[in-house]
Design brief:
Keywords: Membrane, Transmembrane, Transmembrane helix. This is Zinc ribbon domain-containing protein. There is one protein chain. Helix content is 57%, strand content 5%. The chain is mainly alpha-helical. The protein is rod-shaped, with a radius of gyration of 22 Å.
Amino acid sequence: MASEKRTETVYCRECGAEIRRAAEICPECGVRQRPPPSTATESLFDGRNPLVAAILSAIFPGLGHIYAREVEMGLFFAVSFLLAVLSLFVFVGVVLVPAIWLYALYDAAKTAERRDRELSRPPVVE
């Protein structure tokens, strides 16, 4: 019985009062325990939408990663794509350009999906 009560309650991150796990605001101190759910427009700009990441990477490889807040990977794909375009002059780019472009598109969507999972996880309160 005691362990069942522990799983239904957590401690407020501000005052330490024992509150229900589903509580959004602590009844003791009034501090919000979870961020409010984001609206549809906010989710477009917070790097969590795989479709937006894929579209941006389709426009130019690396943009989807930058949108998903993975700047280093975005720069890596952008530079790789530019080098592959330059290698078109020696005909190696015929294979490299589409390969880098397609992989950047796929990986940007997966990165945004992973970011969405991480941000959707409820906060751990100990």
